[in-house]
Each structure stands twice: as C-alpha cells, then as structure tokens.
Prior knowledge:
By secondary structure, this protein is α+β, with helices and mostly antiparallel strands.
Amino acid sequence: MQALLSNLLAQNRALTAQGMVANYIPELAKVDPQLLGICVMDIDNNEYSVGDYDVSFTIQSISKIITFICALMDCDFDKIFQTISVEPTADGFNSIASLEIKNMHKPLNPMINAGAIATIPFVQGATYTEKFNRIFDFMKTMTGNPALSINQQVYRSESLTGNRNRALAYYMKSTGIIDGDAEELLDVYFRLCSVNVTCKDLAAMGVVLANNGIVPKSNHRIVSKKICHIVKAVMSTCGLYNESGTFAAHVGIPAKSGVGGGIIAVVPKSMGIGVFSPALDDKGNSIAGMKILADLSQELDLYIY
Ligand SMILES: NC(=O)CC[C@H](N)C(=O)O
C-alpha cells in the first residue's frame, strides 16, 4: 500500500501545476500549489502516509460534515430536513440563485455553503459560542486530535471578505430559513472553515465513518450507524458540489472536498482517506486530489456501486 501511494503521488504530481489555489479568500491565495499528500487509515488500524501528509491546511467545506453530524445527533431528523434538503445541486457551492429559484428557498443540501450555514442553528448550544464549541470539540473527537486549532489569518481573511456567504445568510433570514443574529451565525461558519487539519486528521475522521461510527483505535462508538449512513449518502450525492456526479462515476466512493485543497474519502467497512493538493478546478475541487483518489479506487477496486 505504501508503495502504491508513493507511485500514485509521483504519477500525478504534474497535475499540481493545473488549476488554481482558491484566491477569492486572499489568505488562501498564498498557499503553495505544489503541496501534495495522502494518508490512508483502515479499520484494522493500519496507517499509510506519503508526501505532505503532515502539512496543515484549512478544512474549509469538509467541516460541513461535522456540522451535519452534530445537527443530526442533537436534533430530530425531521426538523432538520424540513429546513434543509438532501438533494444534489447543479450549481456552484456558493450559489445564491439556487436558493431563490429552486426548492422553495430551502438550501438544497448541507454540503454547500447555504445548507451548512442553515445547519449550524440545529446544533446544541444556547449561544452561537456554545454551538461553535460543540462542533469544534466533535471535530477533535472525530480526528482524535485534541490539538486542532484555528488558522487566525484565514479566519480573519474569510470574515473580512465573506460577502457572498453574508448574502446567503441574509437571504435565508429574509425567507425565514434562519433567524437570530446572522453575523454571529456567520462567525461560527467562518471559524469552522478555518480549522487547521492534515491528511492524517481527515483519514482519521474518514475511518470512523467507514466503521459506521466506531473509532477503530478505541472501539468506542461516537456516531450512530444511522447517522453514518445518512452522512455517507449525502457525501456521495453532494460532497463535491456540482461535480459530485462525475466523482461518483469516476471514483465511486463517498467524499467531501474543501477549497483549502483537502478531500476526505470513505471506503465503507474498510478505510478513511485524506488527500491534499491546493490547486483547484473551476468547481472548487482539488485536481490532483480527485485524480489520485480515482487511481486508488481503480487500483484497489473501491467502487461501492
Ligand atoms: N467550498 C468550500 O470549501 C467553501 C468554504 C469557504 N470557506 C467559503 O465559504 O466559501
């Protein structure tokens, strides 16, 4: 496995020159596009890491999985699904039009910006600070990494320039999808996107989902099987935004990307994978990351369909 991963990184390294790092968040524009890393953890506690697997990057939209899990743990499923659908989208991850034109103002799914912002209020906590702490603490539990921290530069950069996300939140306030203080809610969203993680952290989260909620290292259940099923299904259909269909066809495993360049992928009952390469395609997905996952899926016959 170690040799296979080394080969896949070498074969796909040239792809890091394609695409662009996310530059709509000024601080992300500074990230080195040549970084490339992967980590695989399986449910038998084997771990394989290659390349820049230990380099930190911001989790960005991959945090949407943790927010969704916390909401599903803390609130009736029905209540959540009355406000946020679980349908794929053909629009970009920060689309405003889809909120107005499609689906009666409901965000299409929790894996795009509008849906993630609307999911946060369902997480337990009397204040937004408490809701943030709940999600951040659970991120630490899922990764098994209590030292996770926020990248303050990226957080400030997102908070200063996140006008598209503000537009989404205020639009949803106007239609009653969210209520309360939109700025406080957005602040939770920006902070969650700015958490520093590595490929190892993503693989550790992924293997918990692969193992249907039981941490392989401790044998402790931290998420119900039912919630793991829902989350993996929504990752499969919505995890790469409006490129989820292509990814399902070519890679065939549940995954979630972020504009920091990370992708978490889950092979049910087998392994969690974290891959990182910051150069993105026009949909906001890591080009080399997707290709390495496609090759790995092909090599090991990982397709779930
Ligand atoms: N696709 C992403 O990773 C988007 C997250 C980013 N923080 C944003 O709100 O735009």
